[in-house]
Amino acid sequence: MANIVAIVGRPNVGKSTLFNRLIEERKAIEDNLSGVTRDRHYGHAQWGGKFFSVIDTGGYVTGSDDLYEKEIRKQVRLAIDEASVILFVVDCIDGLTDLDTEFAKELRSTEKPVFMVANKADNLDKMLMANEFYALGLGEDTIFPISSSSGSGIGDLLDELIKKFPDEGEEDPDEGVPKIAILGRPNVGKSSFLNALIGKERSIVTDEAGTTRDAVHTRYQLYGKDYILTDTAGIRKKAKVKEDIEFYAVMRSLRTLEDSDVVIVMVDATRGLESQDVNLISLAIKNNKGIMIMVNKWDLIEKDHKTMLTFKEDMSQKLGENKWIPIIFISALTRQRIYQAMELAMKVYDNKHRKVPTSKLNEFILPEIEKYPPPANKGKYIKIKYITQLPTKNPVFAFFCNLPQYIKSPYTRFLENRLRENFDFEGVPIKITYKKK
Ligand code: GDP
Ligand code: GDP
Fold first, then answer.
1. What atom of ligand 2 comes closest to residue 331's alpha carbon?
2. CATH 3.30.300.20 region(s) of the chain?
3. Residue 120: nearest ligand to its CA?
4. CA 296 – ligand 2 centroid, Å
């Protein structure tokens, strides 16, 4: 189960400052990631050996003041639905405000843990102000005074926060079974695909706006191999206003996405790759998931021998550097290639767990580096000495060299491409880091 922490609160209390502090330590690692655009409101954090995701919900709320009340309701409700823990941030300089009370009202209905975080407790005086917020009658037994700008108090908060996350390593009957999620815009054909694949009317199709249910994990077999499909088809279908869509898409997809190994992004052939699809893909990349694109309703496209290629090239263009994402064309209606699609998902799963022996890496990649060494920087020559794949859950390759700080991102892309040519990482984000040696 994914650990998701949502930061909620009225504007200007310091949510994004706190958010940036929480994800701070990871930044350096993520900067080495090739070909990924970073989302300012969503990131990963780690404390006491536990990993969690953080969402700055405020980052998504835009608009004039009178919009806030409505926004608050929506924001808080989504946060409650999707998060495992909620950080409710208030401001010791301003003290208790009406808007805080509004937030508290909305939060009171949840059974999920709520932490009252009194920010801007920069000194003892301000810290005493934190007591004022007990009036809200919310949260765990205590209020956490913190200063996001200096960092004080955040350690104590995190110590308590991580106690809410389950311990790793408890026996999980699904351990080692590939978890595959099917995500995509409403009406792309997710339920139809599942029904075609599973052969019975298993996902309840609800067209009603506002119907919610949790994603369902179900275990299946294909050619004797177990896998788990996460079915999001029944999840609330329509965002009420246009501006909701990005926030909605992110929140709704997050948990499903985090709980899966491979994400199938389903796209409607008659519409092509849309910006929401691209958002989903970048979210999946950020989460180090295996990814594939499944173009459905292929039966509706008039085809000649070049159509598929043209489609692929067009999508490739939109994917930019992420050309390693495989694309398959299916029809849930005629059942064309539906089993091949699942086989592809399993292959992506295998690729994601591929461990390349150090000897092989050096045998294949060092000669490529010799042919095209990193360009000298400020008159200094960069020498890469050897390469090894780290024992991480997702493929990460460490390149040991004399001057890691001088290697620029075009060269990282060059290395990534050579790795992909020599070893099969189709559908899998890979990371490259440089270490001094
Ligand atoms: P958000 O709208 O809730 O995301 O708030 P921001 O993170 O943008 O912060 C709003 C303002 O409060 C900014 O000017 C921050 O510099 C300031 N701020 C944030 N944390 C602290 C803090 O711990 N102490 C003080 N004094 N100011 C802070
Ligand atoms: P969901 O919202 O993603 O679960 O989409 P549905 O499975 O409910 O499908 C939406 C609509 O698209 C329904 O009318 C389906 O009959 C239709 N549909 C789904 N797959 C296909 C397909 O492969 N070809 C055609 N022509 N229509 C499809």
1. 23
2. 358-436
3. 1
4. 8
Beta bridge partners of 114: 86
Ligand number, closest to the Cα atom of 126: 1
User: For 4-164, which CATH superfamily applies?
Assistant: P-loop containing nucleotide triphosphate hydrolases (3.40.50.300)
What interface predicted TM-score (ipTM) does this complex get? 0.67
Nearest to 72 by CA among 44, 45, 42, 97: 97
pLDDT in tens, 110-127: 888 999 999 999 998 888
Provide the b/e sequence for 261-277 (b: ≥16 CB within 10 Å). Answer: bbbbbbbbbeeebeebb
Which pTM does this prediction carry?
0.68
- What are 374-406's pLDDT values in tens digits? 998 888 899 999 999 998 888 999 999 999 989
Q: Tell me, what's the pLDDT at 27?
A: 46
DSSP string, 196-244: HHHSS--SPP--STT-----EEEEEEETTEEEEEEE-TTS----SSTTH
CA of 170 to the centre of ligand 2 (A): 39
The domain 358-436 is classified under which CATH number: 1.10.357.10, 1.10.10.60, 3.30.10.20, 3.30.300.20? 3.30.300.20
Binding residue ranges for GTP: 9-16, 56-60, 119-122, 184-191, 231-235, 296-299
